[in-house]
Amino acid sequence: MAAVVALLAMGGCQLIVSRSILPNENVRKADYAVRIERDVALTASDGVLLVADLYKPDTDDPAPTILLRVPFTKTFKNSLGADAVGRFWASHGYIVMIQGTRGRFKSGGVNYPLVHERQDGIDTLHWLAQQPWFDGRLGMWGGSAFGYTQWVLADRSDPVPRP
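Below the sequence we write its predicted structure tokens.
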């Protein structure tokens, strides 16, 4: 019984989070069930593991990808927010990659704010380019501190070079 109450409470929390941080007016309906791959690791150029959760629309077709590189600690509140964002965009047909920056969420290494963001982001873009589900279209999303992790890559003339 306690597990059922916890699941219902978590679902309610997700609804509140999604209503407060995601668009809710003039949004087309969600067309896809969502598959989640947790703890997907890639190795940065210096050997550090960067870990992400992937939220995918339930289709085998390649899709556009939204990348969020999150420089926050993994708390219940941050996890709920990340999950709400990932599920929302995936249910609308996007693949969402929510990656902890170095030393955050489940990524390895030590967090030194703003130091490794660019190279780790470039390494992530190279990894994305090799994924069979990636259709070549990329968006990045985030504001404030994790907006910087997007901004630091914005000058890339070819953000996701194909190998």
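The first strand starts at residue 34 and ends at 43.
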